[in-house]
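Note to self: the last two entries modelled the partners one at a time, which told us nothing about the interface. This time every component goes in together.
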Amino acid sequence: MSNSNSGQRRRRGSDQPTLKQVADTAGVSTITVSRALNTPERVNEATRKRVLEAIDQVGYVPNLVAGSLASASSRFIAVIVPSLANAVFIEVIRSLQETFEARGYQILLGNTDYDLDREYQLVRTFLGWSCSALVTAGLRHSEACLGLLGHWDKPIMEVMELGDALDLNVGLDHQEAGRCMARHLVARGHRAIVYVGACLDRDYRASMRFTGHREVLDATGLDAPLIELDRLGSLAAGATGLDQVLADFPEARAIHFANDDLATGALLHAQRLGLRVPEDIAIAGFNGLALGQHVTPRLTTIQSPRETMGRLAAEQVLRRLDHQPVTQRQQNVGFTLMVGQST
Amino acid sequence: MSNSNSGQRRRRGSDQPTLKQVADTAGVSTITVSRALNTPERVNEATRKRVLEAIDQVGYVPNLVAGSLASASSRFIAVIVPSLANAVFIEVIRSLQETFEARGYQILLGNTDYDLDREYQLVRTFLGWSCSALVTAGLRHSEACLGLLGHWDKPIMEVMELGDALDLNVGLDHQEAGRCMARHLVARGHRAIVYVGACLDRDYRASMRFTGHREVLDATGLDAPLIELDRLGSLAAGATGLDQVLADFPEARAIHFANDDLATGALLHAQRLGLRVPEDIAIAGFNGLALGQHVTPRLTTIQSPRETMGRLAAEQVLRRLDHQPVTQRQQNVGFTLMVGQST
DNA sequence: CGCTAACATGTTAGCGCTAACATAGTTCTA
DNA sequence: TAGAACTATGTTAGCGCTAACATGTTAGCG
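The predicted structure of the combined assembly is written out below.
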């Protein structure tokens, strides 16, 4: 029996004002308040005004959790990157964030630390939050992760590189970028060229660039020695890289670094060692970070359009969320060789 | 009348498996499945195993939105910073994220772009997500924002600086840091010292450092000229800053920059101009970014313990969330003067 | 003036989960 | 050996909101 009052359970929940209280204050029903907030064009202007006043009056803050449960979707966009230590991802995140936030979406940031199992866990968690879309850096995923995403019917955007994508794809051709820089070095007359990467098994985009690099050197009849550092790209690692090249390949006259952090670290280290760049050793990087453009000699590098990549990716996803047709599921943002004085 | 079948409403919601289906498969009630996931120690081991198998079997992914609504709290931690362009905040975010993620909390990142109104909007949104705690960079908030937070009963952590905090506080004394560097420059024998900042109205911590700087110069009987750049700290802005000092204060022999980006930009620009550092002009920064430690001459700067700050802040919040007593509501993480060759 | 369409608002029934209370079985204590 | 204390699991009632359907009201039309 419903023992009407005595045996009542204590309520939980926050003691924040709810839609109901706003509705009572404004003298309308809860759904009208809901509509005044979410689809204002469907509510008479006078009513809407009354509702907004009531909201102010009672100090109402919408409970987005409840809204998301009822509508089975949140205004979250899951963004998964392999690292927050790398400026490249930060810049992509920043431009994704700007574009999404302007449209009322909130980014949910996940960091895999280059571990596909962690990616799977993050995807699981994010699916649990009823995200509106997923943006992930890279095309490689675990089987388990693919299993989850296979059932999912919301937009999936894979950024950074181009290839066989699950859904949407915005990026650039890393192998071609590697070829491009190798061609430049060869054209400069260099013959003894070393490629220096950091953790290429994890940063597989850098290893794709090495593949392109090697193709060109092979075709030119040159050796393509590789030095792999066991810690991720940083200025300090770049200095170590230079030392290692000098020790292992004293004949080397040019170094193609996997990224600008390494290259700049090496360049600054060369200064400390009293080596002339590019006369004694030429140095090239990849990414086009501000850093490399401020050192003397200016770093030769490849500019990856990170802002553009983030913005385009976000716009593409937003288009899909607006049910507008997406004409190009894959977009190549390209890259630009920036010839500095370091080669 | 309840027309039992014909007039049924169509359901919405995702077609994902729910707790109920797991429960049926495992032959237990939903609450047991819930407990097996959230408080496993309260479920018999054999039962728990059966439940976990059922979860695998049906491919269940917990709906965290529903869970949060029912429990009136999510495992979100709101983190609000003024900028993602500044490496300092990125590093703090990274160490917050590591510490929180290890304990199963997810960061909800907000970027105010140094705008207190945007901070208010972000706080509103985040409260709507039933966050477990709020971490914010800085002690300054709008009235409206304080109004919202006043009612809120969950942990609030203010990081970066020290002062009159709402709840918890981990940071350093920026005014003292400014004094420290000014003392160093004076001790080095410099008399004509210029402070160069960027958007000091927004980056008010930098202006606190200037206040400390001026105090010391005042006490020494020296002028404390200030140059303020109208764009945020970057290498390029630092170069501009140096140019401006050379133009406006040709007698200047030392520049105290508001941060390392500016200082390093100026240092690299000095190299391009053929100026000797520190003989022609001494340069000092603030933050202790890796960058400044790799240039030649090595930058004199103040190391702010950003990793420590993030970790301590997160640990303090976690302690509060675990209902453990928090002994120190305010923690000073201090700073270290790092004397390089640039002064 | 009756009909339809468009608009404005309301009623109802959950979304999927967990807090609170309830109940059974088991171990321990006096 | 009664019953207190503990363990393991279940039942019930929402959390606060919105989709779907329902109803009322006004405008437009021949």
